[in-house]
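Kindly go through one protein, given below as sequence and tokens. The question is how this chain folds according to its tokens.

***
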Amino acid sequence: MVIGLLFCSPVMAEPVVGLGREPVFDAQWALQASQAAIGRTLDAYTLRDDAGKPVSLEAFRGKPLVISLLYSSCYHTCPVTTRHLATVANKAWEIFGEQSFTVISIGFDTRFDTPQAMATFARQQGLDKRVNWRFLSGSAEVISRLTHQLGFLYAASPKGFDHLVQATVIDAKGVVYRQVYGETFQTQLLTEPLRTLILGTPAEAETPLDELLRRVRFFCTTYDPIRDAYRYDYSLFVGLFCGASVILLGFALLLREWRRSRKDPSA
């Protein structure tokens, strides 16, 4: 079930005990918990991939990571969210490079989100062949601790789960950097923080030339609202180069005339 534009299936507020009612979902409380996660460093949790092999979150350090939490039995919101996330991620990979960041989808319904279930979900979304997108599951204890660190609240409901629909951007050191909300969201909400992390953050053992090239790419990467995509626009540097060339040419001509006038005082 989707609540507003941000929620799919459950976050709950304080339980209502003894009244014979379901726990009430508090959207504001969920949003506050999600925002409070920014700045936290994720622990090196061990999850399992869709083949059942152990995978540590620490293995994704060194470049940005996008985490999307879902439950594989969801028939509408989670598939829609995943396909939209794939559309935006593809635009980012196109300009920043296929290896610039990784996306992982994690099943939080530990009763049913087995490696096999996550593999089926990935195949249904057409993402089972992507090397830069992983579908993971984990034990109840690991998922409970991980979702807490991510500020992701959820609770069972008659139609599945109610939860905040969020994609979490993690930096290269494993720190929660940004939260992006909604089944569908504007491309820039995800690509801008990724651009900053990929092109705006110095890499370890970066040479001066690498730093210069990174800064050039950062300033030349622009968003095209018509195409809803990013592109490299070097027109600023081309203009600077042309302007500098004109100045140098003018200086060379003046210098030549000055030298000529010194050789021939009568001129």
In short: The mean pLDDT is 81. The longest helix spans residues 235-263. The two ends are 89 Å apart (CA to CA).
